[in-house]
């Protein structure tokens, strides 16, 4: 447990990482649903510098793999190795700096474009670099994410404020800023969890170019429902009920006429590709290159997906819960840190008791002067001041000897 606590603060050299991930026999259930196996004896090798795509129906365990790679949870059995080292033996902060995640709904803050992108340097040596060096890295990351052009066209460029949660930007623009934030630290591993699924076709096409650019020379794990976006992946892993049903390249899986082929037919991939080629000339126009998307339209597109949670059987898991329930869930999900939780709790109680204890002691001292047995009570209070000093300065005063300590002062008052 001590080792687990201190691993968070240990730094590891990022330059020595190649990015090979080896998943060995994972079995996992969420703490809120311990009886439901999300992954069952799941094993997968993700080669360094390649694009590995995870596809499958909802609930097959795709996003769970991302959560385990980021160590939001630890598996019940099995292990994940990065370049041959178990990720549980690596610094948690360093691991999450090495693996950068782009999710379906990017989290942006009410600041400037520069401030949002520069957040990707937290925990890296460039965090303390000069403003000029940081700006250069921000521009490079924005170019990789195909975001530099639209950012420079904003009213104040990189100093433009984007509003709460990036509300002044379109969905595609927010995603490209999130990609720039992810690649600015030059991570060895990039995790993409349905990064394009909430966008319209025009914005999706531009964003896909940004993702392809960001994935170069990086170990990339992609989760996608739209199979057209992962057709060129080096390895496509088809998941079903927490297991691997098929894996291989696109053409190989289609030739098998199995689960992946059925998914392709369901999405009518060939028709979509033909339609995209027919409209390629229109997409190259300036108007199509950066579609205008109002906030109202974007909110309408997202709303059905958010309200769909109401139809889920376990919607109660998404309700807001009280502080005590949340703390209990945290303790249950991280049993290896329970000793530290208990230690911190006791220290907090003792620290919080300092001022109430000081108040009680002061009231007792005042009460001494109105007590009939003033000498006996005074000796007790003086002894408390010596044996249980509340502040370091009390200890120093008590150690000054009988001529200047609290007992001496007390008897001097009695003899006045």
UniProtKB/TrEMBL annotation:
Which Gene3D superfamilies does the annotation name? ABC transporter type 1, transmembrane domain, P-loop containing nucleotide triphosphate hydrolases
- List residues traversing the bilayer: 339-357
Cross-referenced InterPro entries, in alphabetical order? AAA+_ATPase, ABC1_TM_sf, ABC_transporter-like_ATP-bd, ABC_transporter-like_CS, P-loop_NTPase, Type_1_exporter
Its primary localisation, in coarse terms, equals membrane
Q: GO CC: one term?
A: mitochondrial inner membrane
* Molecular function in Gene Ontology: ABC-type oligopeptide transporter activity; ATP binding; ATP hydrolysis activity
Q: Which residues form the ABC transporter domain?
A: 21-266
State where the protein is found.
Endomembrane system; Membrane
Q: How does it sit in the membrane?
A: Multi-pass membrane protein
Gene Ontology BP term (one): oligopeptide export from mitochondrion
Which stretches of sequence are listed as region Disordered?
272-291
Supply the name of the protein.
ATP-binding cassette sub-family B member 5
């Amino acid at each position: 447990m001590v080792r687990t606590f201190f691993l968070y603060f240990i730094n590891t050299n990022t330059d020595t990482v190649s990015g090979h991930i080896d998943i060995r026999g994972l079995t996992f259930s969420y703490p809120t649903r311990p009886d439901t196996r999300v992954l069952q004896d799941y094993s997968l090798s993700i080669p360094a510098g390649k694009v590995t795509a995870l596809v499958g129906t909802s609930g097959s365990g795709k996003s769970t793999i991302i959560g385990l790679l980021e160590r939001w949870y630890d598996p019940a059995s099995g292990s994940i190795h990065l370049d041959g080292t178990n990720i549980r033996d690596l610094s948690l902060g360093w691991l999450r700096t090495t693996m950068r995640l782009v999710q379906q709904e990017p989290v942006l803050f009410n600041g400037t474009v520069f401030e949002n992108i520069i957040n990707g340097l937290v925990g890296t040596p460039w965090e303390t670099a000069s403003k000029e060096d940081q700006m250069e890295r921000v521009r490079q990351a924005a170019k990789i994410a195909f975001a530099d052009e639209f950012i420079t066209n904003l009213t104040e460029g990189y100093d433009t404020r984007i509003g709460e949660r990036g509300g002044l930007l379109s969905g595609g623009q927010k995603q490209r800023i999130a990609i720039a934030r992810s690649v600015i630290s030059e991570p060895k591993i990039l995790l993409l969890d349905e990064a394009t699924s909430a966008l319209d076709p025009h914005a999706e096409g531009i964003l896909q170019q940004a993702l392809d650019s960001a994935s170069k020379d990086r170990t990339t794990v992609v989760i996608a429902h739209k199979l057209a976006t992962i057709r060129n992946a080096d390895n496509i892993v088809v998941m079903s009920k927490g297991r691997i049903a098929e894996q291989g390249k696109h053409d190989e899986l289609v030739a098998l006429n199995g689960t992946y082929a059925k998914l392709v037919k369901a999405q009518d991939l060939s028709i979509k590709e033909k339609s995209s080629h027919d409209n390629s000339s229109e997409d190259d126009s300036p108007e199509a290159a950066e579609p205008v998307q109002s906030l109202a339209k974007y909110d309408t597109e997202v709303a059905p997906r958010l309200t769909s949670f109401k139809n889920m059987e376990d919607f109660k898991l998404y309700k807001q819960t009280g502080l005590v329930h949340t703390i209990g869930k945290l303790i249950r999900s991280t049993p290896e840190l329970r000793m530290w939780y208990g230690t911190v709790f006791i220290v907090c109680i003792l620290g919080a008791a300092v001022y109430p204890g000081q108040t009680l002691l002061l009231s007792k001292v005042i009460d001494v002067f109105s007590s009939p047995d003033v000498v006996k009570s005074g000796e007790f209070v003086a002894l408390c001041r010596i044996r249980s000093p509340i502040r370091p300065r009390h200890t120093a005063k008590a150690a000054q000897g009988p001529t200047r300590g609290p007992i001496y002062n007390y008897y001097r008052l009695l003899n006045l």
